[in-house]
C-alpha cells in the first residue's frame, strides 16, 4: 500500500495535527466510477470517522477529475468559461463550480507557500481598471509584485465610482443605474490598503522599498500600513511605458493578467459578471504566474518567481498545484510531496 495517511482529515479531531503516526486502521476500499483502481479507506482510532486518500486531494468528490488540469490551463490562457466548457465537453455550470474550487485551492496554495517574504527588497504596486457587467460599473484591481523576481504578492478587486461629466449619455446611464441599485461604492483605498496589508503580514517589521506611480493616496496608505519601515519611491505615470520605465515589471504583469485572464482582455466579448469571480480568477493567475510559469522566456526551465525568491526548489506542475488539498493551512500537505506526509513548514 503506497498511501499512508499523515493525519486525520477532520479538523475537530486531536489527530488532525498528526501527533500519532499509527492513528489509523485499514477500513476496506471503494471503486469510484471515474477511476480504474480501487481507493483504500481508513478509520481514525481516536474519532472513529472514516476517510480515504481522496479526502486529502483537491479533486475530492469530483465527478470528472481528469478535466481539472486541462481546465486550469484554459483558465490561465485567456479562454472564457463557456468556451472551456465546450472544449472539455462539460456543462457550463460544472465548469463554473470547478473554476471556483480551483481558485480556492490556488488562494490557499499561495497563502501556504509564501507565509513570509524577505524584507529589504523592492516591491512594486499599481492598479488596473476594468468593469463588472457594464462599463458604467468600473472596478479597480491593485496588484503588488516583487521587483526582481516578478513574484505576485497580492491582488484585489473592488468597486470604484467614476462619474462621467454632467450632460453626457454615460452620466445619464450611471445615474439611472445608481437610482436602481443605490450609489456605487468607491473601495479603491480599501483594496490598496488590503493589498499592502498582505505584504506587511509576510514581511513583518522588516524595512522595504515600495515603488509606485505618483498617485497621492499611495504615499499615505504606505505610511499607514508600514510606518517608518517603508521607503517610498514614485515614478511619474506620464513616463513612456517601455522597458526602461522603472515600473516596467508591474506594467508587464498587468499586461499578462489581461492576456491570461480572458475577462480582462480589452475589446472582447468576455466580461466579468461579478467582481467576486474576477478575484477568484486572479487567484488562478497568481498561482500560475508564481509557481508554474517561469519569470521570462529566456530564464531557465525552473526559474519561476517563487524559485527565484527561494520559496520552492523547483517549479510546480499543474497536477501538483491541483494535487493535495490546501485548505488546512499549516496542516496541508506540501504540493511537491508524493506521500502527503510533509506539511508546509
Ligand atoms: Zn480523527
The ordered string of helix (H) and strand (E) elements is: EEEHHHEEEEHHEHEHHHH
The whole-number mean of residue pLDDT values reads 93
SS-based class? alpha+beta
Strand content: 15-25%
Number of helical runs? 10
Low-confidence stretches: none
**How far apart are the termini?**
26 Å
Bound chemical compounds: zinc ion
What is the helical fraction, as a range of percent? Answer: 25-40%
Largest sheet: 6 strands, mixed
Q: List how many beta strands DSSP finds.
A: 9
> What coarse outline follows from CA principal-axis ratios?
globular
Q: For the CA atoms, what is the radius of gyration?
A: 22 Å
Walk me through the structure:
The protein is 34% helix and 15% strand. The strands form two sheets. Strands 4, 5, 6, 7, 8 and 9 form a six-stranded mixed beta sheet that branches. A three-stranded antiparallel beta sheet has the order 1-2-3, with no helix packed on it. The protein has 345 residues and is α+β, with helices and mostly antiparallel strands. α2 packs across α3, α3 (92-113) packs across α8 and α5 (188-203) runs parallel beside α6 (216-226). It contains ten helices and nine strands. Zinc ion (ZN) binds at residues 8, 10, 13, 15, 44, 46-47, 49. Zinc ion binds at residues 8, 10, 13, 15, 44, 46-47, 49.
Amino acid at each position: 500500500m503506497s498511501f499512508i495517511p499523515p493525519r486525520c482529515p477532520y479538523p475537530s479531531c486531536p489527530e488532525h495535527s498528526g501527533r500519532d503516526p499509527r492513528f489509523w486502521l485499514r477500513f476496506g476500499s471503494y471503486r469510484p466510477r471515474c477511476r480504474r483502481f480501487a481507493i483504500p479507506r481508513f478509520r481514525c482510532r481516536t474519532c472513529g470517522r472514516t476517510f480515504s486518500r481522496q479526502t486529502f486531494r483537491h479533486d475530492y468528490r469530483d465527478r470528472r477529475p481528469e478535466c481539472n488540469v486541462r481546465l486550469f490551463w484554459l483558465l490561465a490562457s485567456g479562454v472564457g468559461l463557456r468556451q472551456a466548457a465546450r472544449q472539455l465537453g462539460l456543462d457550463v455550470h460544472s465548469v463554473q463550480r470547478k473554476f471556483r474550487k480551483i481558485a480556492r485551492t490556488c488562494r490557499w496554495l499561495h497563502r501556504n507557500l509564501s507565509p513570509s517574504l524577505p524584507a529589504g527588497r523592492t516591491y512594486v504596486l499599481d492598479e488596473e481598471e476594468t468593469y463588472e457587467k457594464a462599463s458604467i460599473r468600473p472596478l479597480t484591481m491593485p496588484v503588488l509584485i516583487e521587483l526582481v523576481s516578478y513574484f505576485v504578492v497580492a491582488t484585489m478587486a473592488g468597486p470604484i465610482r467614476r462619474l462621467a461629466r454632467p450632460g453626457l449619455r454615460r452620466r445619464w446611464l450611471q445615474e439611472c443605474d445608481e437610482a436602481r441599485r443605490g450609489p456605487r461604492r468607491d473601495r479603491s483605498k480599501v483594496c490598496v490598503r488590503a493589498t499592502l496589508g498582505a505584504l506587511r503580514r509576510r514581511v513583518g517589521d522588516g524595512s522595504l522599498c515600495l515603488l509606485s506611480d505618483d498617485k497621492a493616496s499611495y504615499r499615505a496608505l504606505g505610511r499607514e500600513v508600514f510606518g517608518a519601515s517603508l521607503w517610498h519611491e514614485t515614478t511619474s505615470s506620464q513616463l513612456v511605458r517601455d522597458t526602461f520605465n522603472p515600473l516596467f515589471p508591474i506594467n508587464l504583469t498587468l499586461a499578462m493578467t489581461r492576456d491570461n485572464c480572458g475577462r480582462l482582455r480589452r475589446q472582447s466579448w468576455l466580461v466579468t459578471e461579478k467582481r467576486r469571480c474576477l478575484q477568484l480568477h486572479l487567484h488562478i493567475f497568481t498561482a500560475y504566474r508564481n509557481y508554474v510559469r517561469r519569470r521570462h522566456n529566456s530564464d531557465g526551465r525552473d526559474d519561476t518567481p517563487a524559485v527565484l525568491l527561494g520559496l520552492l526548489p523547483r517549479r510546480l506542475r499543474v497536477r501538483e498545484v491541483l494535487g493535495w488539498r490546501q485548505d488546512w493551512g499549516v496542516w496541508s500537505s506540501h504540493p511537491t510531496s508524493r506521500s502527503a506526509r510533509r506539511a508546509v513548514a
